[in-house]
Amino acid sequence: MQVAIYLFKSSKTNLGYRCLLLSHPSSSPxxxxxxxxLPVLRRAYDLGLFTMIIGPKGTGKTTLVRAFGAEIGRTLxxxxxxLRTRESHLIGTKTLENGGVGFVDGILVxxxxxxxxxxxxxxxxxxxxxxxxxxxxxxxxxQVVLKESEGQTITASKGWTVIxxxxxxxxxxxxxxxxxxxxxxxxxxxxxxxxxxxxxxIIRRHTSIENSALASTRMGVKLANKLREAAAxxxxxxxxxxxETIAFSKxxxxxxxxKYAAQLVFANVYGQWGDVEYRKVMDMITxxxxx
Length: 291
What we know:
The chain is α/β, with parallel strands linked by helices. It has helices at residues 37-46, 61-72, 87-91, 107-114, 128-138, 179-182, 196-206, 214-232, 242-253, 258-267, 275-289; strands spanning 2-4, 6-7, 11-12, 18-19, 22-23, 30-32, 51-54, 76-80, 92-97, 100-105, 117-121, 143-145, 153-155, 161-166, 187-190.
């Protein structure tokens, strides 16, 4: 299943968050649904169920959510969680203007009012107090009480839906989510890296790589998969994403020699874990690209 996605010029809420309005013009790029995830998201949406997407970084989780937002025609309200994300980012804050006290809605409240698609990216990087407040809005009532304002109750508009993504606990900054919050997302998708030929196809859609350079692109994808496999069994500390295979191909496209581009994109990052890690990866590069 292929879904075309297009991002209109982003608008900003009063808190500076970006809300993306999605549509389907024929000139837009195509999302390759190699995991058959879009039908699952659609079924969950039609049933009023929230979905959690689980997978390593760089597997296209965000692209998938944007594509789904385009399919259902909902405004996307993304929140990328970190240690700096506070309740006020979700709920809102009081303001003082012209001697009067007002209230600026946070992204959670705004998405509920507008019936949009709330995208909770890297949810398992959020702090406990933020998760507790979010949990209030995700139960069957779909309500949140604005104790920060005048105590009014906000009920989600028809069509409001939520998709969360989480990274494996092996990723830095992630933590185990509490069971009650996990239960709010009864539909769970696993998104892995695509098969090699699909990844090559994705790269071709992000670059203008010529057929003469496809062999180098395929070797770069092969290398990335070997590194991912090694990281999965903790033989290496880092697993490259599709962003990196695209970057590698762009360097090839610009005229860089394949082995040098592989060193720049794939090998050098391992230097932060010491020369042994770096040499392991350089040996793998040499075995694939030669001397």
